[in-house]
Amino acid sequence: MRYGIVCNWVLGPDPTGSDVIALACRAEALGFSSFVASDHVVMPTRFDHSRYPAGAGGFQAGAPWYDPFVLLAGIAASTQRIAIGTGVAVVPYRPPVQQAQAIATLDFISGGRFWYGAGLGWMEEEFEAIGIPFKERAPRTREYIHLMKLLWSADESPYHGQFVDFPGGRVHPVPVQKPHPPIIIGGEGLPAFKRVVEYGNGFQFNFKSAEQFALILEELGPMMEASGRRVGELIMQLGGTTDVVRQHRQEIAALQRLGVQEIVMTSKCGSVAEGFAELEQLAREFL
Q1: Bridge-based pairing state of the strands 183-186 and 2-6
Q2: Where is pLDDT greater, at 207 or 58?
Q3: Which of 22, 117, 134, 145 is deepest in the core (most CB within 10 A)?
């Protein structure tokens, strides 16, 4: 099993840029598989936690939220082996042409180490702050990814969709990975399964027991087969807080047998020193 680490909460509320880069370098040296940045653009001044099960409890509006593509470019330049990924980027937050260029450049500068964790987003207030209609997030995501795939393939054709009217053109350089960096779909349930089947190379779902994960495969497998694909071709990740992963550590071997390849862990620490100590402890426990 491989283990990745999410950087946003692990160093407390006020790390420096040098602290985050040092964390990535230490994670690489210890043998972590991925260094991951989550995605929020702006914290709304009003936010109702009770509306969002995904954001309840552990959500911290005061946590650092970096532009994931900018941050990971700095990490790519400071490391050699560790994969870098978004866990997950909210696709409709950024225009697709510019986003395609940023991802291609990030894959280029990292030498093909980037995976694109992609999701719809869930915080309606943040969509309002950015000026993107919340109800459009699913079709925008589908359309944006379709156009980005065209650009990554060096196809210069025009694209005319519901939200994008693109006259044609190209980005250069295109990604190192062919045909593009892996698109790892975030989310839960049937809607996320459909996105995996339609345009995903893998998925990152919330941490599951082996029994729960087996049920996912039972549902997702036939959907993949109906589209001419195999569930075994997918990159399978689970994400969760370190507390959850530790509580279910006995499940990890069974999850690996079912096909899970990587667990992406989120630690919530109060300071830089605490975060580095936690990283060392996680390495002792899992690597």
Answers
A1: unpaired
A2: 207
A3: 117
Set out the domains of the chain in order of their start, with CATH numbers: 2-286 (3.20.20.30)
d(CA 109, CA 105): 6
Distance CA 283, CA 277 (A): 10
CA dist 69 and 76 (Å) reads: 10
Q: What is the pLDDT of residues 202-251, one digit of tens each?
A: 999 999 999 999 999 999 999 999 999 999 999 999 999 999 999 999 99
Which tokens is 88 given? 């997950």
Specify the pTM: 0.95
